[in-house]
Amino acid sequence: MLALLTSCSAKGPDPVAVDPKHYKVEFENERFRVLRVTIGPHEKTPMHYHPDYLIMMLTENHTRATDVDGAVSEGNNTRGTTAGISLVHSEENLSDTPMELYIVELKKR
Fold it and tell me: What is the pTM of this model?
């Protein structure tokens, strides 16, 4: 029970705690955390939370995201950088190739 509580923020579960297979911490300090994410072909992540973030896509992929309310969206990711606001979601790689990216999560000051 304590492990589950420490793996959750006020908004939702920490992806590193609930899905260490796909999410690894590459670097962390008081201002941000860098996650290395590798999701295999047709694999899905459990529901998890990200604070405000930047994504650096290393591969092109087709994905399906499901938010905490059950809303589903699909999209094609291209290599490069995108930004987003905090969210709770799960992610599914619909591609036949691994999805690889870095997420830089911004910490509140």
Answer: 0.86
Structure letter (DSSP) for residue 78: -
Looking at this protein, which amino acid is placed at residue 88?
V
**Among 62, 109, 93, 39, which residue's Cα sits nearest to residue 15?**
39
DSSP state letters, 94-109: -SSS-EEEEEEEEPP-
Give the Cβ contact number of residue 55 at 10 Å.
Answer: 18
DSSP E strands in the chain: the ranges are 23-28, 32-39, 48-50, 53-57, 61-67, 72-77, 80-84, 87-93, 99-106
Which tens digits make up the pLDDT trace of 17-55?
999 999 999 999 999 999 999 999 999 999 999 999 999
Class of domain 2-106: mainly beta
Using alpha carbons only, what angle is made at residue 73 by residues 11 and 90, rounded to the nearest 5 degrees?
Answer: 40
